[in-house]
Write a structure and sequence with these properties.
Blueprint (H helix, E strand, L loop, with lengths): L2 H11 L5 H14 L6 H11 L11 E2 L12 E10 L3 E4 L5 E11 L2 E8 L5 H4 L7 E11 L5 E4 L5 E4 L29 E11 L3 E4 L5 E11 L2 E8 H8 L6 E11 L5 E5 L4 E5 L1 H7 L5 E2 L8 E10 L4 E6 L5 E10 L4 E7 L1 H6 L7 E11 L5 E14 L6 E4 L6
Parallel strand pairs: 1-2, 5-7, 12-14, 16-17, 20-22
Antiparallel strand pairs: 2-4, 2-6, 3-4, 4-5, 6-7, 6-8, 9-11, 9-13, 10-11, 11-12, 13-14, 13-15, 17-19, 17-21, 18-19, 19-20, 21-22, 22-23
């Protein structure tokens, strides 16, 4: 734990001390030691003298999810729970009744399944493990599951901590990066993604015979979001869950698989590895918070910008430029005004053609862009791969997304 984190912990426990007071105590400890103490060790000594317990650093190997490999043991992994699957009871080939459940945990680098067996399943209720909680799994081990994907297991020495006090919650995503339907392309074929959409169409539950003679079930539906629509196929237990939902309900799908159809369009498959949750409006707002609207006058520095609204104040014009990589790409440039100021916008590649259709006076909303220095070092807006343009319909007074074909 860094010295700054220890200082913040002391401040939270001792309201009578300021940050400056604590830093002075730490500096006094360092000087008394002749300079042999680090900031962290001195901070820990000060905390102990003030009667404040500071968690010791986990002695085991802490690994990012993207770096996990099969066979790794005594491993510590920290992440946010993004899915809790219901327990399942079955009889193994020896006639023994067994119980299993699993969690999906994510950090900024990836997602992994934690598989629990028999008595371990009780930890979910005993520790009140829920979606959204930060957990630390210590002394776990990694193996390859039957489906070829990595799993994190507890074993005899494994331990789960919920909401560890020495972990910064903001470092862990609420949900692995959600895909807008427009963003789902052939590049994601056979990959796992997460998305949220509203049920626009839904078929009846259907049955099919597996190769071993047993019966399976599936259901088809269409999900829609503000960027487009996409067909969904849910299988077996997940199909039964979705059958009970109503049209216009919002579904959260975590770890769903992108599949290519015969006609080369895409659909999403929801199988035993997919987490499904019907969302109410409050939960939806927590997962997908409304982006803060920025005014032109507030743009002072380079960096990313979430949302800007304004009116097109100049006619867009198209040009071709040569990049440093030797590419020739199309760029459409126009100016936007919001009453507090004006700023130039450069729309690149596929967005160039979309922006060229804008007219002077159109009310636009621009999401996910980068602010950088342009002509004469003045700040301007430049689009990136996730940028979206919206135009307000003057008659219907609704926002319309300018979007290329979904599956391109």
């Amino acid at each position: 734990m860094a010295a700054e984190d220890i200082i913040q912990r002391i401040v939270s426990k001792r309201k009578d001390l300021s940050v400056e007071d604590i830093k002075a105590l730490i500096e006094a400890k360092k000087q008394k030691s002749g300079g042999y103490l680090t900031d962290e060790i001195a901070a820990r000594i000060v905390a102990a003298e003030l009667g404040i317990e500071i968690p010791t650093r986990t002695p085991r190997l802490k690994v990012l999810i993207k770096n996990l490999v099969s066979g790794l043991g005594k491993v510590t992994v920290v992440g946010r729970v993004v899915a809790v699957y219901p327990p399942r009871v079955f009889t193994d080939p020896l006639g023994t009744e067994r119980k299993t459940s699993s969690l999906l945990m994510a950090d900024k680098t990836g997602i992994i399944r934690i598989t629990l067996w028999n008595d371990e399943v009780e930890l979910i209720e005993n520790l009140k493990i829920r979606r959204g909680k930060i957990i630390r799994v210590s002394n776990g081990y990694i193996l390859e599951g039957k489906d070829g994907n990595l799993e994190l297991r507890l074993g005899r020495r494994g331990k789960i901590e919920v909401s560890p006090e020495d972990i910064r919650e903001q470092e862990y995503p609420a949900i692995p990066r959600l895909k807008n339907i427009r963003e789902i392309t052939l590049k994601q074929r056979n990959r796992r993604i997460s998305l949220i959409g509203k049920i626009r169409e839904k078929s009846s539950l259907s049955s099919f015979e597996r190769r071993n003679g047993s019966l399976g079930q599936f259901i088809r539906l269409v999900l829609t979001d503000e960027t487009g629509t996409i067909p969904i196929v849910a299988w077996n237990e997940q199909a039964k869950t979705i059958e009970k939902t109503d049209l216009n309900n919002f579904l959260l799908l975590v770890n769903a698989k992108v599949k290519e159809r015969i006609d080369h369009s895409l659909e999403i498959h929801v199988d035993h590895r997919t987490y499904v949750e019907v969302l109410d409006e409050d939960t939806l707002k927590q997962i997908v918070p409304k982006k803060k609207l920025i005014q032109v006058s507030e743009i002072k520095h380079e960096g990313k910008l979430a949302v800007l609204e304004g009116h097109v104040s100049t006619k867009p014009f198209l040009r071709e430029v040569n990049t440093s990589k030797g590419e020739t790409v199309r760029v459409t440039t126009f100016e936007v005004s919001d009453g507090t100021g004006k700023i130039w916008v450069s729309a690149w590649r596929t967005l160039a053609d979309l922006a060229l259709n804008l007219c002077v006076g159109d009310q636009v909303r621009i999401e996910n862009v980068r602010i950088k220095k342009g002509f004469k070092d003045e700040l301007e807006i430049s689009t990136i791969s996730s940028t979206r343009f919206w135009v307000k319909d003057k008659k219907k007074k609704k926002w319309k997304l300018l979007s290329p074909s979904i599956n391109n």
